[in-house]
Specification:
The protein has one domain: Jelly Rolls. Helix content is 0%, strand content 45%. The chain contains no helices and nine strands. A five-stranded antiparallel beta sheet has the order 1-2-9-4-7, with no helix packed on it. A hairpin with a 5-residue loop joins strand 1 and strand 2. It is elongated and about 45 Å long.
Length: 124
């Protein structure tokens, strides 16, 4: 899991999880990104989750994503595309000094499916 990294100009930042996967004992959620403090300026961010091919294509077995801001769920979304493709990005306003978490919602049928998330943030 990556922390917040400033770009050279100082007006943008990014974070990425890399490719993650669970195993048969994986919990119901896997934390992909955790930023304990987003900094001294408000941000406009875009969260881009991604998923590898699903292990099981049965209905309701696809992974999903939860985004929390200061421990409050602000996005909860499941992938319904049986290929496992996540075609949505999530643009969000993030107040300064917020705690930001991006979590993968796991399913028993797809514990070993790869997943990850990237964020690009623009200071306002």
């Amino acid at each position: 899991m990556s922390a917040q990294t400033l770009l050279s100009g100082g007006d943008k930042w990014y974070s990425y999880s890399g490719v993650l996967f669970g195993d048969v004992s994986a919990p119901a959620t896997i934390q992909m990104l955790f930023i304990p403090n987003t900094g001294l300026r408000d941000s406009y961010i875009v969260v881009n989750p991604f998923y590898g091919s699903a292990v099981s294509n049965s209905g309701g077995a696809q992974l999903g994503i939860t985004i929390k801001l200061d421990d409050v769920e602000i996005v909860k979304h499941n992938v319904y595309d049986v290929r496992g493709d996540m075609v949505e990005s999530f643009p969000l306003f993030i107040p300064r000094q917020s705690k930001l978490e991006v979590i993968s919602n796991n399913t028993a049928a797809n514990n070993t499916q790869t997943r990850g998330a990237n964020i690009i943030g623009y200071y306002l």
